[in-house]
Amino acid sequence: MEALIKPEFGLMFWTVSIFILLLILLSKFAWKPLIQAIEDRENNLRLEREAAQKDREEAEKIKNDLDEKLSELKKNIGLKLEEARKEGQKQRDKILSEARDNAQTLLENSRRELNAEKDKLAKQLKNDIAEISLKAAEKVLKKSVDAGINKKIVTDLISDIESGKTLKN
Q1: Rounded Cα distance, 156 and 151, in Å
Q2: How crowded is residue 145: how many other Cβ atoms within 10 Å of its Cβ?
Q3: Chain-centre distance of CA 29, in angstroms?
Q4: 126-142 tens-digit pLDDT
């Protein structure tokens, strides 16, 4: 064990010689392939990193494009909804207006019909009253008046009633 602690020239010579020989062999056969493998690995990592960066940038660009399209789509949807709401309001107002007009027309037609019926009934009532009056007068006088005179009396009586004259005149 002492031989290892005390340096001897022969042992040192062979140790250094073998070390130098090992360095030469390693540099000739092992270091170039190892260095080449390390450089290839570095190149691959750099390329992968660049590809990942490029993919990330492309993904960011696609995301921004999609965000813009989504924003534009939301805006278009909002505009279409507003347009549809306005169109619905117009249709509602139009339908309500038509319904009011129809109701007003129906009401006016009903009033005209009622007034016409009222006028017809009033005229009929006047004719009936005139005939009853004439028959009552005929019975009072106990004489028969011919049909032409009867018609003239009825017509005169109706026109007197329409003009507001009373039978007292």
Answers
A1: 9
A2: 14
A3: 78
A4: 888 878 877 777 766 65
pLDDT at site 91: 95
Q: Is 142 helix (H, G, I), strand (E, B) or coil?
A: coil
How many Å separate Cα 85 from the centre of its chain?
6
**Whole-angstrom distance, CA of residue 131 vs CA of residue 135:** 6
Question: Which among 154, 128, 161, 160 has a CA at the least distance from the CA of 145?
Answer: 154
User: What is the chain's alpha carbon radius of gyration, rounded to the nearest angstrom?
Assistant: 62
Arithmetic mean of pLDDT over the chain: 86
- Asked if the model's pLDDT at residue 62 lies above 90, the reply is yes
Rounding to the nearest 10 degrees, give the CA dihedral for residues 100, 102, 105, 107. Answer: -70
